[in-house]
């Protein structure tokens, strides 16, 4: 079912007509013209049941004896079909903060994750008639989509190949928004944004995973240091040979390279050793 515009008239004019009917009917009753007086009063009462006040960013879904008549979105005072049933639907932008869920990532590691969903109703007919309590529907589908998206990716990608939940939050949030929109369009809801608000390893493996992250960080740092040291040593040897500062045979060159690498790569300050003899 799709939303459509309901039949409405100016509410202020309706108020004038209702007051005139009630006053006129009362005056006729006083004059003992009971039939016409009662008829005017009934007309006024029936018309008053169709007067509705619409606040900004609110709407009313109008049904008449089980049939969907339409939706009133424009704020103001309106007269719609008398004796109809009206259900209020908010058009405001709302947030939904999911509970912290315990989910397994694609590698089977238990993690804790939560998200905030920003949404609004764009089709009031679907929100009222196609699902039962659309707000609860949004909550359940948001948690389901979050679990599904989380199970596709690892928490952290130590091999630096592909997406991970920790390293690619923007991409994960974009995929979560797309999946949520697909799930919630049946309820006439537009997903404006979806963001992860909490992401952590579960307590039972948090310590082990922290040690793994620290180890990988140390290895990455060591790799950078070694690569830089090799470049510096190569540059030093090439300059010595180019400028004819000293002529080094293979054995002395190997010794100098070893000393330079130890001095550069070592965590502690190198202690110089003065050689007063010879290698031979």
Automatic annotation (TrEMBL):
Pfam families registered for this protein in UniProt: Band_7
The Band domain, residue ranges: 49-213
UniProt entry tagged with the keyword DNA-binding: no
The entry's keywords: Membrane, Transmembrane, Transmembrane helix
Keyword flag GTP-binding: no
InterPro entries (alphabetical): Band_7, Band_7/SPFH_dom_sf
Transmembrane segments: 7-30, 36-54
Protein name, per record: Band 7 domain-containing protein
The organism of origin for this protein: bioreactor metagenome
Taxonomic classification: unclassified sequences, metagenomes, ecological metagenomes
């Amino acid at each position: 079912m799709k939303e459509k515009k309901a039949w409405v008239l100016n509410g202020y004019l309706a108020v004038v007509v209702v007051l005139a009917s009630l006053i006129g009917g009362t005056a006729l009753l006083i004059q003992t013209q009971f039939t016409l007086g009662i008829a005017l009063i009934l007309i006024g009462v029936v018309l008053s049941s169709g007067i509705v006040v619409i606040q900004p960013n609110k709407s009313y879904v109008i049904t008449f004896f089980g049939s969907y008549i339409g939706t009133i979105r424009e704020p103001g005072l309106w007269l719609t079909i008398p004796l109809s049933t009206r259900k209020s639907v908010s058009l405001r932008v709302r947030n939904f903060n999911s509970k912290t869920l315990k989910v397994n990532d694609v590698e089977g590691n238990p993690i804790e994750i939560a998200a905030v969903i920003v949404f609004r109703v764009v089709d009031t007919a679907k929100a009222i008639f196609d699902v039962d309590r659309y707000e609860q529907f949004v909550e359940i589908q948001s948690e389901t989509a979050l679990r599904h998206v989380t199970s596709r990716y690892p928490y952290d990608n130590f091999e630096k190949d592909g997406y991970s939940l920790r390293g690619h939050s923007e991409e994960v949030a974009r995929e979560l928004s797309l999946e949520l929109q697909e799930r919630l369009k049946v309820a006439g809801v537009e997903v404006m944004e979806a963001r992860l608000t909490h992401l952590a390893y579960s307590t039972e493996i948090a310590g082990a995973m922290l040690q793994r992250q620290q180890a990988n960080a140390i290895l990455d740092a060591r790799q950078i240091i070694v690569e830089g040291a090799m470049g510096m040593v190569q540059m030093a040897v090439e300059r010595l040979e180019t400028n004819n500062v000293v002529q080094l045979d293979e054995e002395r060159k190997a010794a100098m390279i070893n000393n330079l690498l130890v001095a550069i790569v070592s965590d502690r300050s190198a202690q110089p050793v003065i050689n007063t003899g010879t290698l031979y």
